[in-house]
Amino acid sequence: MREFEKIKRLPPYVFAVVNQLKMELRHAGEDIIDFGMGNPDQPTPKHIVEKLCEAAQDGRNHRYSVSKGIIGLRKAICHWYKTKFNVDLDPETEAIVTIGSKEGLAHLAVAITSPGDLILTPNPAYPIHPYGFIIAGADIRHIPMGPGRDYIEEITSAVRDSWPRPKILIVNFPSNPTGEVVDLAFYQKIVDFAKEHELIVISDIAYAEITFDDYVCPSIMQAEGAKDVAVEFYSLSKTYNMPGWRIGFMVGNKDVVAALGKIKSYLDYGTFQPLQIAACAALNGPQDCVHEIRQMYQSRRDVLVQGLHKMGWMVESPKAGMFVWAEIPDEFKSMGSLEFSKNLLKEAGVAVSPGVGFGEYGDHYVRIALIENEHRTRQALRGIRQFLHAGAST
Questions:
Q1: What's the longest Cα–Cα distance across the chain?
Q2: For residue 22, is pLDDT > 90?
Q3: How confident is the model at residue 143 (pLDDT cuts 50, 70, 90)?
Q4: pLDDT for 217-240, tens place per residue?
C-alpha cells in the first residue's frame, strides 16, 4: 500500500469513530439526537435565497468568476466592517473572498508558510487551525487554553522557548470549541506582541455575530496597528445560515491578502457568481434575520445549560458561539472524551463531539452543538440524565 508523507502527518480522524457508530445505530432504527457537527439546521433567510435565484437566471453569471471575489462583494465586506467595527478597509487590497473560511485558511497556509516554519495555534482548536499548516509542511507549537490559563503568558512562554522563532500566531475568539471570548484590550496586546516578535497574526471570528448576554465581539482590526501584522477571517455560514454556500472572506494586511490572492489565482476561480451576489444581499441587506438567529441560539443554549445544571452537570454557559464546551463529570473522566461520547451515544441516543478531537487539552470535555430545536434538546436531556445517573450508581 502506498504511503504519502503529508497524509501520515495527519492523525486518525477522531470524529469519524463517533460518526460511524451514529450511522450504525441509525441504520438499526435508533433515534439519534445529533449535537455533533456545528451544522445550522435552519434555512437561509428568504431575501438571500431570492437574490440567488434572481442572479442564477442571468446567464452572464454562469461564467468563471474571479478568484479574489467580485468587486461588489469585496465592497460589501468592507462596508460590513465599517458598520460593525468602524474599521476602514480597501476592497482592492485589504479584502478577499474565500470558498468558506476553512478553504481560505488552508490556502493561506500554503501561501505564506514553508517547511519547518513554526506556527503557534491554540489547543483545543478547530482542526483546520493546526492541520491546515501541517498539511502545508509547517511545524506546530500548541498554546494551551482553558480555565486558569493566561493566554498572553502562554504565548510569551512559547515564543521565548521556541527555536526557530515562530512565524505565525493563530487566535480564534469566540473560540470553537471552547466558546471563550475576549475584549479589544486583548487584541491590542496581541498586536503589540506580534510587532515586537515579528509575528503574523491570523484571527478567526466566524462566530462574531452569535453572541449572548449583551456580549459584543470585537475585531482584531480595531486594535491600533493591526493592519501591520494581522489578517482576519469571517464566514457567512453561521450568521446567515449559509454553511453549504461556502462563502467566507479575509481582510487585513495587504501583503498577506496579496499572497492569498496569488495562490488562489492558481488554485481556484472563486465560487459560483450568483452565490457571491446573494452574499452581497446578506451583508448589505436587512439584519433582522441575524438578530433572530442569535436569539434562537441563545434560547437553545439556555434550555440545554439549565437542563444540564438541574441534573448536576454544571457546565459553563457560553457568551458566544453555537456550542457548549462541557467538562465531563468527575466520575466519567477516567474514560476520556472519546469513550464517554461513544457511551453517551449508545446508552442515551445523543451524539456529541469528543473534546480530544480538538487537541489533547480537550480530552476532559465534549462539545455539544446547539443545532437541535428546544423540543429535541429536552428529549436529549432526559436521555442524558438517565445515562449519568446509571453511570454514577455503578
A1: 66
A2: no
A3: very high
A4: 999 999 999 999 999 999 999 999
- Tell me which residue has cell 451524539: 351
Mean of the pLDDT values across residues 99-122?
Answer: 94
Residue with C-alpha cell 493591526? 226
285 pLDDT exceeds 80? Answer: yes
Q: To which residue does cell 460511524 refer?
A: 20
Rounded Cα distance, 16 and 304, in Å: 25
E strand or H helix at 108? helix 100-112
Classify residue 211 by its DSSP letter: B
Distance set, CA 137 to CA 7, 9, 99, 114, 213 (Å): 11, 9, 22, 6, 41
228-243 per-residue burial string, b: 16 or more CB within 10 A, e: under 16: ebbbbbbbbbbbbbbb
Measuring CA to CA, how many Å separate 259 from each of 116, 230, 264, 265, 382?
19, 13, 9, 10, 51
CB atoms within 10 A of CB 265: 13
Residues 6+ positions from 271 with CB-CB distance below 8 Å: 65, 97, 99, 245, 246, 247
List, in order of start, the domains of the chain with CATH numbers.
5-43+289-392 (3.90.1150.10), 47-284 (3.40.640.10)
Cα–Cα distance for residue pair 307/378, rounded to 1 Å: 8
Tell me which DSSP letter residue 319 carries. Answer: S
Q: Which three cell numbers stand for residue 270?
A: 472563486
**Average pLDDT in the 27-45 region?**
89
In the block, residue with C-alpha cell 451514529 = 22
Query: pTM (2 decimals)?
Result: 0.94
Residues 246-254: what's their mean pLDDT?
97
Residue 393 has pLDDT above 60, yes or no: no
Q: How many CB atoms lie within 10 A of CB 182?
A: 17
| Higher-pLDDT residue of 19, 208 | 208
Buried-exposed string 137-170: b where 16+ CB fall within 10 A, e elsewhere: bbbbbbbebbeeeebeebbeebbeeeeeebbbbb
Grid-cell match 512562554, residue found: 157
- The pLDDT tens digits for 69-86 are 999 999 999 999 999 999
CA 225 to chain centre: 25
